[in-house]
UniProtKB/TrEMBL annotation:
GO aspect biological process, one term: DNA-templated transcription initiation
Gene3D superfamilies: 1.10.1740.10, Winged helix-like DNA-binding domain superfamily/Winged helix DNA-binding domain (1.10.10.10)
Annotated family: Belongs to the sigma-70 factor family. ECF subfamily.
UniProt-recorded name of the protein: RNA polymerase subunit sigma-70
Amino acid sequence: MGLDQLIKKCKQKNAKAQEQLYRLYSSKLFSICLKYSNDHASAEDNLQDAFITIFDKIIQYKNKGSFEGWIKRVTINTALQKYRKQKVFDIINEEQLEEVDVEINDEEVSLDYLLEIIQQLPHRYRLVFNLYVLDGYSHKEIAEMLDISVGTSKSNLARARNILKVKIEETKEPYARAID
C-alpha cells in the first residue's frame, strides 16, 4: 500500500493503517522527541502524544507538501506544548547579544560527544539550540512556538553556544597538552 493510500485509510480511522503508519515513522519521530525531552521516558510519552495528535488531525493534511515534514512539525509542537505553559525561560532585555562561534575539529570532538553535550544543556537552552541549529527555525518562529520573545530565543541560543564552547575547549585542553 502506498503512502497516499495509507494516509487515506488513516483519515478513515482504520486501525491497521494507523498501526502501519506508526511503524513506518515511529523511530524517526522518536529521535525528534529525544531532542526535545528531558529523558527517555518523557520522549516516549511525547511520541505517544504526537501520534494521538497526528491521527486526530490527519484529516487536516491536504496531501500538499511533504507528509513527513507535516508529522515532524506536529511532533515538535507536541513535545514543546508543555514548555509553553511553564516559565522555564529567562526573560531578558532585548539588547544586542554577542554571537559565539564554536569551532569543531572532527579529529578532536566526536559526533557522539557533541550530541552528548547538547543533551546535557539546560532544557531551555537545548530547546532553542535544537530548533535553531538542528531544525532550522528562525528566532521569530521559535519565539512563537515557545511563547517567548525573540530576544529570549537569541539569548538562550547564545548561552547554549557558550556552554558548548566551554565543554569543547575542555575536551581540547588534554589533547593540546599531549601534543606539547
